[in-house]
Amino acid sequence: MARLTPFHIIPALIAAASHAGEVTIEPRAFSVEKSFSATALPDGDCVLLKIDPLVWADFKIVQVAGHGAKVAKGDVLVRFDAEEIDKKLADSRRALEAGTLSLAQAEQDSEILRQTATNKLEGVRRGAGIAKEENAYFTEVRRKASEQTAAQALKRSNQILSNQREELKQLSRMYKADDVTENTEEIILVRQQDAVAAAEFALRMETLDHKRTLEVSLPREAKTLADNERDTAISLKKAEADIPRSVALNQLELESLKTANQRAKQDLADLEADRARFEFKAPADGWFYHGPIENGRWTTGKLLETLVTQGRPPAHTAFATFVPRAAKLALVSFLDEATARSLKPDLSGTSTLLGREDVEIPVKLLKLATVPCPDGTYRADFSVTWPKEPAPAAGASVQVRLVSYQQPAAIVIPTKSLSFETSGWTVEVKLADGKTERRPVKRGRVSKDDTEILSGLEAGQVVVVP
Which of 366, 444, 438 lies closest to 411 in space, CA to CA? Predict the structure, then answer.
């Protein structure tokens, strides 16, 4: 047998069914609250650890402080293996010393070459001038004189022979007139005969010399002098080009040595500068974080895998962060576009540390980016008044709550009662006769399941909620 519902309960059920699909509009307080996470980060006081080598590429970790380690001023944060770079430094210093000595020697040689170049060129010019003068003198004067001298010598020999023969003839005729030739006269005749023979021999030799002088010696000397004049002229022309060129080439070589020496000095300086990067020490008391804290973000990921013994952090990339004990922590959040558009600077609100929701921490929005980051988020910076307890650490997550919009008396309806049509937003309104009709409205802000209506509805009207 079915149970009957008591009569006095029926009106209540009817009222409940009626109110489940209808909302009577009454002005009430309306607000939009935004809740999002933020990160506690040093406000510009942290020190990023980054290897910016000039020439050296191998930085292998041999010592690294643990993540979150509390360190004192002067403690080693990261140390790299310096064995190979120290060997390279020793080799570079020796090479630079040898190059410096070679440069000094080259400078001395270059100065000597420069000073002697003029004298060498002048010596070649003088030799060419002498050769030309000798050839000209021979051609114009000495050859003819030599020919005349040879002719005169031949003539004199002929004259001597003729004289000796005539004298022998006269002696022979004189001594022949006597009946008896004495021994003395015999001796004189023999002597004169020898003189004639000697004169004949001298004439033959002089004839040979005369012939050789005219046919061989003088033509040969003429060619030699002409060749010498030609060769010295060629040598002079070559020297006039070669000597200045050798000085210029030597100067270029010297400049190359100077450049190489200067580069060696710079390379050594760069290497020494890189050697200074093989150890990072804490500049003050504070904490050491693995991963860079920059631009409002704490980056970890694959980079942390290199911060171990034998690891090699990438060059020119921040890989760790030192946070001074005196550093002040601020809040940074990266908001989605909808949240960012609903906020404006100077908004105040509260925040809580995860797990300590009982402690409310005052915050204030200081800066809000108007241009999105590459990932589409908008950076927001907050000032914060931290409690003594619990004290947050850098990198701690905080939940921020802000009221971005509020009205003490607003027309508010359930969001699901709104419909969008070609003419715009509309709601279904219940009329006095029980019928309904769709009314156009102007929508305002939205907060969770409620929407503010700026125009189109009045207090007391009933909105149908599907």
Answer: 444
